[in-house]
Amino acid sequence: MPRRAFTLIELLVVIAIIALLISILLPALAHARKSGRNLKCATQLKQLGVSTNSYAHEHKDFIWNWSWKVGDTRQSRFADLQTAGNDIDAQRNQWVDAFRRLTGFPMNRETATNAGLIPQILYSHFVLFDYLALRLPEPIYTCPEDTVRLNWAKDLQAFKAGLARPYPSAVGTPMPDNDRDMRWAFSSSYEVTISAYDGLQSSPMQTGPDVQHRMRNMADNHFFFHSLDTWRLRQQKLTSVVFPSMKVFLHEGHARHEKRHTYYATAGAKANLLFFDGSVSYRNNKDANRGWDPWAPASPNGYQYSYRPDAWEPRTVTGAATEPVFGFYRYTRGGLRGVDFGGREINTGQP
């Protein structure tokens, strides 16, 4: 008996069924991959939490962050980093020292000092990775959805030459082959909340000449801060945290796990958060306390500033050049004694 061949109609029906199945499966596979990246991000934060406890155990309960003071710079093997005019300058020296040793790239001390760089904002992880004896770049401090940073770190020479687009520039104009810009390739997707390194925010009450000290975002860029008075940046102790399961330690700088990427403080944004008890949670900032306003401490509304995205960052929701946002857990009322999620804000008598 002769074998019956497929007719053209039957073949087209089979192809149509296969195409339909693919169209059904592809979104599910894409969602599964995205969920996997979200899980990996949370796992990385969890590992950083474990390392935080290890660091504190071996460093008199201190939270990892920049710690050098005037006189400590003699620890550096680099002659140009062995003097400092004040403690903030000493911490810049400490960052330049770590940058040179951990990345293998040069960093000009005067560039960091003249730029007024505060390394606590995006580079605190250098201290932890120095403790762990790891070279940089290291994927654990970069969210898997942060494809821009991953691309920068993939080819550091291309980044140094200004070829890794979109190229970062906090001042609006790319400066390829500039050692100050080189630092961006080693910046983290995760930001340390300010109370973990700001002496004023971590204290229940401040008196004396430093009472006017406030740290505030400059109006034109969410990565810059300025102060009315002398900075009081120093390591804080883990035992100063009163509500560890309710207080955020590390948070994603941008919310990247939904369909549309946004800035972490955009209304309704969801991000992975590492709490001081070591737990990690994917939370919506609508459930967070507003935090405090360093320039109007008595206000219950929290601090509002402008998000002005650089070329490499997610756009504003409205498409405008800037977008008003609240600081939320970046500016916890009460500092390390405060609460971000799961309870009302704690008034510790903070000025």
Average pLDDT level: 84
Shape: globular
Beginning-to-end CA distance, first to last residue: 95 Å
Ranges where pLDDT stays below 50 over 5 or more residues in a row are: 171-177, 204-212
Strand content: 5-15%
What is the subunit organization of this protein?
single chain
String of helices and strands: HHHHHHHEHEEEEEEEEE
The largest sheet has its strands arranged as 1-4-7-8
Structure in words:
With 351 residues, this protein is of the alpha+beta class. The protein has one domain. The chain has eight helices and ten strands. The strands form four sheets. A four-stranded antiparallel β-sheet has the order 1-4-7-8, with helices on one face. A hairpin with a 7-residue loop joins strand 2 and strand 3. Helix 2 crosses helix 4.
Keywords:
8 helices; 29% helix; 10 strands; 351 residues; globular; alpha+beta; 4-stranded antiparallel beta sheet
Task: Describe the secondary structure blueprint for this structure.
Blueprint: H1 8-58, H2 87-103, H3 109-114, H4 125-131, H5 147-154, H6 156-160, H7 179-182, E1 190-192, H8 199-202, E2 215-217, E3 225-227, E4 248-252, E5 254-255, E6 262-263, E7 270-275, E8 280-284, E9 304-307, E10 323-326
Antiparallel strand pairs: 1-4, 2-3, 4-7, 5-6, 7-8, 9-10
Helix pairs in contact: 2-4
